[in-house]
Amino acid sequence: MASRLFPGVLLLSLASLAAGACAGGGGIAIYWGQNGNEGTLAQACATGNYKFVNVAFLFTFGKGQTPLLNLAGHCDPASTGSCAFVGADVKACQRMGIKVMLSIGGGVGSYGLSSRDDARQVAAYLWNTYLGGKASARPLGDAVLDGVDFDIESGGSAHWDDLARFLKAYSRAVVLTAAPQCPFPDASLGTALGTGLFDYVWVQFYNNPPCQYTKAGGVGNLARAWEKWAAIPARQVFLGLPAAPDAAGSGFVEAGDLVSQVLPVVKKSKKYGGIMLWSRFYDEQTGFSDKVKSSV
């Protein structure tokens, strides 16, 4: 016997179904900014594939150095107004509900923190130049990014926890994310991640054979490392992967293997937030996010 639903009840039922469909679902984080041929930031967001975009990289800062932003072939941050269109794109992405982060560090650069006071000064620079503060020179104009991504691959391990504390002290709304290597704990960010101040952590499960997936070895090494990462005091943990074989030295996982072998393992964790891909340029070449987004 068919039941009859009144319009209000029907709407409530549909809303409940939608909420159920989203429960436990993950998102995709992407890095943008390191290849002038990857299209604009607005175009990346318009795909609808990404929940987070990391604008990369602020690659020089700390130790008394003048901070420098590098956006490869997109624009020249040192030239006034050159990157204003990126700021407009940030706003466009945010209107779509996408969080946009400034990624600091990276694999090539000159950065590090010499003291707690150095961390305080870098935090002030980040707040005033890219976040909610005010500075006479803002490379991305008046766009207010959602937070800061710590992609610390050199520069030592000292005072990143101080930087995190100073940034959160400006506003609890500042989103902090990090991209540690999969060997646990991360040599650079282990102490900082222990503060519990990081919202999202996308662990790089590539360029590190002892803790990455291979067809021959299976998911065992990755699963053991993932279990440790899933226990850190962060809101969510993401599985970081290259979006193409050429995007990293090792660790690329075919879309089919990711969906059938890897995701069923990592999604068991309550901390699972989705996947991170390096980078937008490679993702555009392979269509990787298109292939996996419905399973993430």
TrEMBL record:
It catalyses: Random endo-hydrolysis of N-acetyl-beta-D-glucosaminide (1->4)-beta-linkages in chitin and chitodextrins. It comes from the Eukaryota. Gene3D superfamilies: Glycosidases (3.20.20.80). Pfam families: Glyco_hydro_18. Keywords: Carbohydrate metabolism, Chitin degradation, Disulfide bond, Glycosidase, Hydrolase, Polysaccharide degradation, Signal. The keyword Zinc does not apply. The lineage of its organism: Eukaryota, Viridiplantae, Streptophyta, Embryophyta, Tracheophyta. Its EC number is 3.2.1.14. Residues 26-296 form the GH18 domain. Residues 1-20 form the signal peptide. This is chitinase. Belongs to the glycosyl hydrolase 18 family. GO terms for biological process: chitin catabolic process; defense response to fungus; polysaccharide catabolic process. The keyword Cell membrane does not apply. It is an enzyme of class 3 (hydrolase). Coiled coil: none annotated. One of its GO terms (molecular function) is endochitinase activity. GO terms for cellular component: extracellular region.
